[in-house]
Amino acid sequence: MNLNDYQTLFVVVTLGSALIVASPVLALVVSFKGGSEQFSEFWLLGPDHIADDYPFDVNAGEMYTVFVGLENHMGSSEYYKVYVKFCNETQSLLDSDEGVPSSLSPLHEYPFFVEDDGVWESSVSLCFNNVVIEDGILSVGEVVINEVSFPVDVYAVWDSESEGYFFQLFFELWRYDADSHSFTFADQSVGLWLNVNIYED
Amino acid sequence: MGSWLKFLVVSVFLFSLVSLPWVNASNETVAFSEATQAEAALTSAYDVVLEAEEAGANVSSLLNKLNIGSEYLAEAYVWYRLGDSQNANHFAALCYNLAEDVQSDAVALRDEATSSRMSESVVVMVGSAVGVILVVGTCFVGWRVFKRRYHKKVLGLRPEVV
Fold it and tell me: Structurally, how many domains does chain B consist of?
């Protein structure tokens, strides 16, 4: 190695050391946000707090419990809303492929805040009242969610193929967008298909 | 006198028939407006909490308070949908007050975190600048020393005297 090679080596070592020493300043300027995937995990669990034994054949006047929950992996605190909606087989349902929420009015809503990597969960007790069958049509007049009654007027015709009166109760996830200052549909929903019956003793 | 009394009773009856639904509708409008205001206050509070979080503050306690406020808000909407304006207003007011408290706490926390981050940044920048000067200076001196020894020992040359 001649003197010029040593000089080059000294310059490289000097620049490298200076870069290392200046790295805290670079960290202040350069943001590394968004390196990992950002998402919200949304789930519905059965009465035993597992993904099993979901209510399906439900009887009018009886109480059923499910758990709806969410884990925030968006990289910051988030403000969410979960809308509870109830409809029959033929009413317009959520088109999850196109990210379009259902046009139905919500029965109930859960607004909540979750910090980054935080979990939110709520038990939801359900009961269907004022259920009447007339001329092969079953109508539900009241849905009770967490002991609060909500009047509804939803009916289903007898499905002879699957043998039942089928309804869907589902939970839509919406997220607050701080840039637009409004809630937007998070393109996520979980729900239950229910065969509502009236069993008489 | 009797006819005047009858007229008065009938007038009051007719007036109450006409005005009661209007009063009821007005109460519902007020309840909805209160709930909407409470929701707006909650959202504004969250915006400031988010700014505080971005500034590096720990906002866990504020989020817990916001969650209590969101429960009040949900309750207010439930009562509104069930037509109970009094309870709807009550819960909307609870939510609004809590959101206002959170917002003022969040502003203080955000400002504190921002000034703390600012002074940290100044320390980091000054420290880095001093460090870079020291590194460059040390390397420069080291190079000069190395170069002199190189000339003396490796090449066996003496520095020329001018």
Answer: 1
